[in-house]
Write a structure and sequence with these properties.
mainly alpha, about 475 residues, DUF4218 domain-containing protein, Transposase_21, three-stranded mixed sheet
């Protein structure tokens, strides 16, 4: 109950848990009576909607509410008697924040995730512009300081930017706005809107309408057909195939991601079927290496910087100084991307990246606050549905049965369960070989194959063994 108070990080500026974030500290300052008792519960409320019937065309959506505690591991129960001291106390609980994806947040809060004011953080000052067929969220040069040279550049939207950065609204102003919002039916339905596809032809027409990047404007051939110049940010057919082959041949630790070899199409021209976690692995681990060879440096550099930014902000430990620097860095990254991609590329999800460092300062590391574990849990709940006429009852019955089996399984001593079974890949004990170069604790996976060395390869292997064995240093010298 009290590990968040007794075991928290004491290094200034280091964030390893939500207790190190500003939101937790501000709550403790405002409600000191609640904070005096470390056994009081801090909760996070997660909600999202999903269709129980898979691909069946039926307008039915369920919205489970999931509470997660930041005091205890989820498998421990909460009682009002401290078994360590035998003392009784008056337990209180508070909801620290809610956890939703962006569409669910829009449905639950009432603040629309579409339109000119889609960003809830920028509020009335959301930088947006209407292009052909959609709304683009550009003009991130507003977040730069006034003397910055990019504010005088016409390469972004054809105009000089003299506006101020978006204002910060206080609690009373936000609550007043929420009070004026109309009542909306909760859920993802037709009134929420439809997703607009980024049409490349219209994206090129946007450039001509804004008077920027004339080299990418649509042209016309002698036969009267529309010609589309090759953009620097797109792969050539040959490089596209090479990049897919690079992804196909990547080898990563077991369990880190899906098998990318099965995600690349047979003709090595496309990558399909990636899940959310696979996209994170692709962005944080693979793109920084794969793009360098197939895109120009001025295009690959901001993309690689964006990948490094996501790798940094998804770390288990964050530093406050690093987040402040990342806030300035991400503005430069988005501005560089605006000089490369057409405005139609910048939907609301691209714009929201600019607020991630400041949100990390408020809530601490993002791993206890993102939707990954809750989306996986909802998939598990979906598997409980046996009677499609009573889906809620099926989920409740399946969850109770799972809890009962989990609780009772702890009393079986000699039965293999998910709590005591060995991992799929267990490293063998260290070898007793005297030579350090052969002391490998790795375990091979898959079928064994016999490899025969030619003369040149055998010389390379011999050279590696001889020059990496400290035991023969005296003989080699």
């Amino acid at each position: 109950m009290t590990w968040h108070a007794t075991g928290k990080c004491m290094e200034p500026g280091k964030m390893q848990h939500p207790v190190d974030g500003r939101a937790w500290k501000n709550f403790d300052t405002k409600y000191s009576n609640f904070a005096k008792e470390p056994r009081n519960v801090r909760l996070g409320l997660a909600a999202d909607g999903f269709n129980l019937f898979g691909n069946i065309s039926q307008a039915y959506s369920m919205w489970p509410m999931i509470l997660t505690t930041y005091n205890l591991p989820p498998w421990l129960c909460v009682e009002t008697i401290d078994v360590a001291t035998g003392q009784k106390f008056n337990m209180r609980a508070m909801v620290l924040w809610t956890i939703n994806d962006f569409p669910a947040r829009s449905s639950l809060s009432g603040w629309s995730g579409q339109g000119y004011l889609a960003c809830p953080t920028c509020n009335k000052d959301t930088p947006s512009v209407c292009v052909l067929g959609k709304i683009a969220y550009v003009s991130h040069i507003k977040f730069l300081k006034k003397p910055h040279k990019w504010r005088r550049s016409l390469e972004f939207n054809g105009e000089i930017e003299d506006g101020d950065p978006p204002r910060k609204f206080n609690r009373d102003q936000i609550q007043a706005q929420l009070a004026r919002l109309p009542m909306r039916v909760k859920g993802k339905h037709s009134s929420y809107g439809v997703v607009k596809i980024k049409h490349t032809t219209k994206a090129r027409q946007d450039l001509k309408m804004l008077g920027i990047r004339s080299g990418l404007w649509l042209g016309q051939t002698k036969n009267g057909k529309c010609s589309k110049p090759q953009a620097a940010y797109s792969f050539t057919p040959e490089n596209r195939k090479k990049f897919c082959q690079f992804i196909k041949g990547v080898k990563l630790p077991d369990g880190l991601r899906s098998n990318f070899k099965h995600k690349v199409t047979d003709n090595d021209t496309n990558i399909t079927g990636l899940k959310s976690h696979d996209c994170h692995i692709m962005m944080q681990r693979l793109l920084p290496y794969g793009l360098q060879q197939y895109l120009p440096d001025e295009v690959a550099k901001p993309i690689i910087e964006l990948c490094s930014f996501f790798k940094q902000i998804c770390s288990a430990t964050l530093m406050e100084d690093d987040m402040l620097k990342a806030q300035s860095k991400v503005v430069d990254i988005l501005c560089n991307l605006e000089l490369i991609y057409p405005p139609a590329f910048f939907d609301i999800m691209i714009h929201l990246v600019i607020h991630l460092p400041l949100e990390a300062l408020e809530g601490g590391p993002i791993r206890p606050r993102w939707m990954f574990p809750f989306e996986r849990f909802m998939k598990k709940l979906k598997g409980y549905v046996r009677n499609k006429a009573k889906p809620e009852g099926s989920i409740a019955e399946g969850y109770v049965a799972e809890e009962a089996l989990t609780f009772s399984s702890h009393y079986f001593q000699d039965v293999t369960m998910k709590f005591n079974r060995p991992d799929r890949n267990v490293d063998p004990p260290p070898l007793t070989c005297q030579f350090q170069v052969f002391r490998s604790i790795c375990k091979s996976i898959g079928l064994r194959s016999i490899i025969r060395f030619d003369t040149q390869e055998l010389k390379k292997v011999t050279w590696y063994v001889l020059y990496n064995s400290p035991k023969i240093d005296t003989y080699r010298s």
